[in-house]
Design brief:
Elements: E1 17-26, H1 39-54, H2 74-87, E2 90-100, H3 111-123, E3 128-131, H4 137-147, E4 150-152, H5 154-165, H6 169-183, H7 191-195, H8 215-244, E5 250-255, H9 261-269, E6 286-291, E7 297-302, H10 312-317, H11 319-326, E8 330-336, H12 342-355, E9 363-368, H13 375-388, E10 392-394, H14 403-413, E11 419-427, H15 431-440, E12 442-449, E13 452-460, H16 461-466, E14 471-476, E15 482-484
Parallel strand pairs: 1-2, 1-3, 3-4, 5-7, 5-8, 8-9, 9-10
Antiparallel strand pairs: 6-7, 11-13, 11-14, 12-13, 14-15
Helix pairs in contact: 1-12, 2-5, 5-6, 6-8
Length: 485
């Protein structure tokens, strides 16, 4: 089989695998069992406390009493793992949550508890164990010796979902690079299990080949994939350079996975990007044009969703895709308004944005899924945001609520190709010019006099330049200056 080639799928791969979930809650002194402060949670809270500074350019007024940010507790983390398992195509047949004062270095949860889990997994005929925690190579080996089943940790599960959803060559390359970087330090003692050609969760992509039997082959494959991704970056840079030569701004959608970014993207662009309640339904980036109320055109980019403890290898591997976020004129941070943990999820997004060094870019917060809130509460939130002029817009992408308001806010923020109020006197015989103004500007008045059409319009700078010979006067909407012909 050629190096890196995808092997034939196992016929059992299409069958729903039975997964047993294992969560762990590490208690710390002075806190309840539900209140563990993990490094990721602390980093999230730190990022969230710094988040207002990131959008300082667009913020209206500072909030003196900041609400505390709820963190993921063990039960909610396990519920998220349940959703991830469903996205990977597994059927959850059982779960258990282990509370400990400290992780066991050999098996994470202790040999005694593992014996109990092995019995429970056998009683429900589970095919594999999914751990809501990252496992070291030795921990994974030790656990498998006791439970006699495949063991997948959180990071490997996320990588598998990415491999499942990658459709383009670029997406597949990025997933393969992340998987190889994850596998490389875990080769010792794993040759027999990982060399088997099989199917199922945790075995897609390079895990299905025999690359892991030779570190030099893997390192060589990593270099090859990185070179191909560098070619992708170069092509994207050329495409971006062509786009940037025209006065068209790019707006990037970011947010926690399953916040409704793709549904919002489809509603704004009338595209047909897959919108699914499953996590990481969108993996490959999509760019579409959107016409703003001022008749200016922008490009909108849909990106992969973020998640708590997103593997660093994924952020690095997907840097070619996430460059669209780095070069965007405006970032739309989409949040799930119906989620109790929306603040914590937003904080996790802040961590990734900081890693991408885009935390100071102009940003607009979009609270999606208001249709899932109480109708009176949703109306109050939307009216308060409108009255206070806050940097937040409440919408329902599924029902189309608030989209006009969102487009108007984007229009007011985007600085590229600024809009001017222009008085024109165009000869009636200039049909192409009149058609251009009809299509690309907002016409406020129109009068016919002496074989000419006198118009008062709001038009982008790119349009004004094309009709400059018929301009009587022009007023930039950002200032009182007037230019007369």
């Amino acid at each position: 089989m050629p190096l890196g080639a995808e092997p034939p799928r196992n016929n059992n791969e299409n069958l729903e695998e039975r997964a047993f979930l294992v969560g762990i809650d590490v208690r710390t002194r002075g806190r309840s069992a539900r209140g563990t402060v993990t490094p990721q949670a602390q980093a999230a809270r730190d990022a969230a406390s710094a988040a207002p500074a990131a959008g300082a350019k667009l913020q209206s007024s500072s909030v003196t009493n900041k609400p505390s940010i709820p963190e993921f507790d063990a039960e909610e983390s396990l519920a998220e793992l349940r959703t991830l398992a469903g996205s990977a195509g597994a059927k959850v047949v059982g779960e258990i949550l282990q509370r400990r004062d400290r992780p066991d270095p050999a098996t994470l949860i202790g040999a005694g508890k593992l014996e109990e889990i092995a019995g429970a997994a056998a009683s429900v005929n589970a095919d594999l164990l999914l751990f809501d925690h990252d496992l070291s190579a030795s921990q994974q080996r030790n656990i498998e010796k006791i439970v006699h089943r495949r063991v997948i940790d959180r990071t490997q599960l996320i990588l598998d979902i990415f491999a499942r959803h990658a459709r383009t060559r670029e997406g597949q390359l990025q997933v393969e690079l992340a998987q190889l970087q994850y596998l490389l330090p875990r080769l010792a003692g794993r040759g027999v299990e990982m060399s088997q050609l099989g199917g199922g969760i945790g075995t897609r992509g390079p895990g299905e080949t025999q690359l892991e039997t030779d570190r030099r082959k893997i390192a060589r494959r990593v270099r090859h994939v990185e070179q191909q991704l560098e070619n992708v970056r170069r092509i994207r840079a050329q495409q971006r350079q062509r786009r940037e030569s025209a006065p068209v701004a790019t707006v990037a959608l970011v947010g926690y996975t399953n916040a409704g970014k793709s549904t919002l993207f489809n509603a704004l662009t009338r595209a047909a990007v897959l919108a699914s309640p499953r996590m990481f339904a969108t993996l490959d980036p999509t760019i579409r044009g959107v016409v703003l109320p001022s008749k200016r055109k922008i490009l909108m980019s849909d990106t992969v969703g973020f998640i708590r403890s997103l593997p660093h290898t994924l952020v690095s591997a997907f840097r070619a895709t996430l460059e669209e976020v780095q070069r965007a004129s405006l970032i739309l941070h989409v949040s799930d308004a119906s989620s109790r943990l929306s603040a914590e999820q937003d904080a996790q997004v802040e961590i990734v944005l900081k890693e991408l060094e885009v935390e100071k870019k102009p940003r607009l917060r979009v609270m999606n899924k208001v249709d899932l809130l109480d109708e009176e509460v949703a109306e109050t939130l939307m009216n308060d945001a409108l009255r206070d002029g806050s940097n937040t817009v409440y919408v329902s992408a599924a029902e189309g609520t608030g989209l006009d308001r969102l487009l108007a806010r984007i229009d007011a923020i985007i600085e590229a190709n600024p809009v001017s109020r222009v008085h024109l006197r165009v000869p009636q015989k200039e049909g192409k010019t009149l058609a251009l103004l009809e299509a690309k500007s907002r016409i406020y008045s129109r009068a016919y006099k002496d074989g000419a059409v006198e118009l008062e319009v709001e038009a982008p700078e790119s349009v004004v330049r094309r009709v400059r010979e018929w301009v009587v006067n022009v007023r930039n909407l950002n200032g009182p200056a007037t230019k007369k012909r």
